[in-house]
Specification:
8 helices; about 25% strand; two-stranded antiparallel ribbon; seven-stranded mixed sheet
């Protein structure tokens, strides 16, 4: 790990070490919808994967924090493994429902090749100095036709495009923000597609929670319709993709 990557890892560890750091925002309407979209994308993408296979393939969530996406989608009929850098966050999860795994997502994943059917990585990739390494590791551990669902804040929201036109910095690259300074690799929908294709993923689909515009006096107008029509303008990008199926 390079010095810059190690520094980024340590900064994230300090910020997210306590379980309540993420619990403070996951229930807000904005993030609740984002997490709902992740769950829907996962269930839809898994439909038909491993049908007729006794083991059916485990599911892995990376950077789960103190609340797993898997808890919001009901019984998936598969073994679920939830992983995070913080034992404090993992201790808040229900061990009887999931297998707990402490790991550093900026390094190699301690899993065998082609060992899982699906991976969820919510609000994680923007924190990594080398996100392409993580995508390559996920592609390695996924079975042929396996599913990846990830989410990340959008660098190119409507409001940030307007801000940039007037010479103002997009929020996702604000080094003075209380926690957004940890978003060292912000993404647009187009860049996510390119990264996923470069890592060998196919069938890339993009969704978003809201397209939001300021309405003055601290108020915002949020549109689900525009987010469905133009996900590349939305606040959070929710992307699902899969590894290529075996040709045989």
């Amino acid at each position: 790990m390079t010095g810059a990557a190690a520094a980024a890892r340590e900064a994230n560890r300090r910020c997210y070490h306590q379980a309540d750091t993420t619990l403070q925002y996951v229930d807000s309407p904005y993030h609740a919808l984002r997490r709902q979209l992740i769950g829907e994308a996962l269930v839809e993408a898994l439909d038909g994967v491993d049908v007729g296979t006794p083991a059916r393939g485990a599911l892995l969530e990376l950077g789960c924090g103190a609340r797993s996406i898997f808890d919001s989608v009901g019984d998936l009929g598969r073994t679920t493994v939830v992983a995070d850098l913080s034992w404090s966050a993992l201790s808040e999860l229900k061990a009887e429902r999931h297998r707990l795994l402490r790991l550093d997502a900026s390094g190699p994943l301690p899993l065998a090749d082609r060992s899982v059917a699906g991976v969820v990585a919510a609000e994680l990739i923007e924190h990594l100095y080398h996100p392409g390494d993580l995508l390559a590791e996920i592609a390695r551990v996924l079975r042929p036709g396996g599913v990846l669902v990830l989410s990340t804040p959008n660098l190119a929201t409507v409001q940030d495009r307007v801000r940039f036109l007037f010479g103002r910095s997009p929020r996702q690259v604000d080094p003075l923000h209380a926690y957004l300074y940890l978003h060292i690799r912000p993404f647009t929908a187009e860049m996510l597609r390119r990264m996923l294709h470069a890592a060998g993923f196919v069938d890339v689909q993009v969704r978003s929670n809201y397209v939001s515009v300021p309405a003055g006096r601290g108020r915002w107008l949020h549109s689900r319709l525009l987010a469905r029509m133009f996900p590349g303008l939305g606040g959070s990008l929710v992307v699902d993709a899969r590894t290529p199926a075996d040709s045989g």
